[in-house]
Amino acid sequence: MHHTEVADLDFESWVCPVPLRDTPSVVMGHGGGGAMSGELVEHLFLPAFGTAAAAELGDSAVLSIGTGAATDGVAGAGTRLAFSTDSFVVKPMFFPGGSIGDLAVNGTVNDLAMSGATPLFLSTAFILQEGTGLAELGRIAQAMGTAAQTAGVRLVTGDTKVVDSASGDGVYINTSGIGVIPDGVDIHPRRARPGDAVLVSGDIGVHGVAVMSCREGLEFGTAVESDTAALHGLVAAMLATGADLHVLRDPTRGGVSASLNEIARASDVGVELVERDLPVPQNVRDACSLLGLDPLQVANEGKLIAFVPPESADEVLAALRAHPLGRSAARIGTCVADHPGMVVARTAIGGTRVVGLPIGEQLPRIC
């Protein structure tokens, strides 16, 4: 095999296992939200950032700004803030049920919501390829504005850059967001406990299949539309039950599999799924079978996973099902003390299979 030499980089000084040590260049899998993404962060970015890096890295950071009270609905000193940033490179830019515009708003709103925050403000930055049609850009901007109004957030600052026609692919968008976390809410990936019920708010795998249906002329017989949606209202309905929500996560890149594995490792617990209880629509199941994909590893953009104490499971599940975005919510498994850090699924024939963390990305450019 031919290896390209890379000058001025000392790979031997990196504390870095496969695949980074044997991959001197960035590959698509590094952006897939799976094992390769984690290794890139752990073994390249964090050592490079040193003490400048936050102690904990998640979809959103929880920040305290001192002591005091909020006024006029704006965070005051002492308020806990959630802060998040995300970038969107989905291809194609328009897909059944949505576009890169509403995806960019909803994705960052949801990252904030997974810490229990009420989203307030977003920034937005565009990287535009020279030659992109202004009509297309206008549709994207309109979709962003509509999504922001629907979510009740304000787009307060932004930036625009243009790259030459050989350096981009249409429109890339970055959004960052700030939200306020209510007192008494403590949602964190390390809070999963044995006995917790594992809930999902609805059908899984829909977004990834919807985007894939636009590529290479694929048709799956029935229309599949993205589930892109802002989930903070759904989270608010769950919090209104008074339940102590331990963990929330929106299973985007890497799907349900990646999210559950990350939570299991963060909390040092095991997760046992019941395969027959997974809400996978038939059209998604058929498409995944055709493409050789695992629905558990396909991206979602309008679903959440919740780890809740067993005594609160029925009440929280009822609250989910009473909300328009949670009508198909289901209990899909249980948090256990056995096999810590591992996710397994009980199959329909009584066996057990390991649900592993994806290595790279089954479907690139999905969000």
TrEMBL record:
A Pfam family matched in the record: AIRS_C
Superkingdom, taxonomy of origin: Bacteria
Gene3D superfamilies, A to Z: PurM-like C-terminal domain (3.90.650.10), PurM-like, N-terminal domain (3.30.1330.10)
Protein name per Swiss-Prot or TrEMBL: Hydrogenase expression/formation protein HypE
InterPro entries: HypE, PurM-like_C_dom, PurM-like_C_sf, PurM-like_N, PurM-like_N_sf
Family to which this protein belongs: Belongs to the HypE family.
Annotated ranges, domain PurM-like C-terminal: 193-339
Stretches assigned to the PurM-like N-terminal domain: 76-181
Species of provenance: Streptomyces polygonati
